[in-house]
Specification:
By secondary structure, the protein is α+β, with helices and mostly antiparallel strands. The protein contains one helix and eight strands; from the N terminus they run H-E-E-E-E-E-E-E-E. Strands 1-2-3-4-5-6-7-8 form an eight-stranded antiparallel barrel. The termini are far apart.
């Protein structure tokens, strides 16, 4: 009987700790969105981007709206220079200072530049 009580007590204690941890961490996690930016491309088109992340800073991303109406949410990736966002299979959005470069992956798996531009002044 004593061993059974110890097992039930231990199981309840572990369960309460796990539930407490899950509730504390999950409840605090939320999406934090930043400013919206517009980029003017050399060809006259405009690309819109809004940057954001998770409240615990475990992930940063960019929401990209292209001139053809397609929208992407791209995670931030490691970059030696500037800020690079990509799904690593279709689209790459790379900013450095005021400059932006958009690249798409072709059928051969090679990235090709499809748009270049710069940040428009805030209004």
């Amino acid at each position: 009987m004593k061993g059974r009580w110890l097992s039930v007590s231990l199981l309840l204690s572990v369960s309460l700790v796990l539930v407490g941890c899950a509730t504390k961490n999950d409840a605090a996690l939320r999406i934090v969105l930043g400013e919206k930016y517009t980029y003017s491309c050399i060809d006259g088109t405009k690309i819109r981007a809004q940057f954001g992340g998770l409240s615990d800073d475990s992930l940063h991303f960019a929401r990209i709206s292209l001139p053809d109406g397609r929208k992407y949410t791209l995670p931030q990736l490691v970059s030696a220079s500037g800020a690079r966002y990509s799904d690593e299979r279709e689209l790459e959005f790379w900013i450095k200072g005021e400059a932006v470069t958009i690249r798409r992956m072709n059928e051969d798996g090679v990235w090709e530049v499809v748009a270049e531009g710069k940040t428009e002044p805030h209004q």
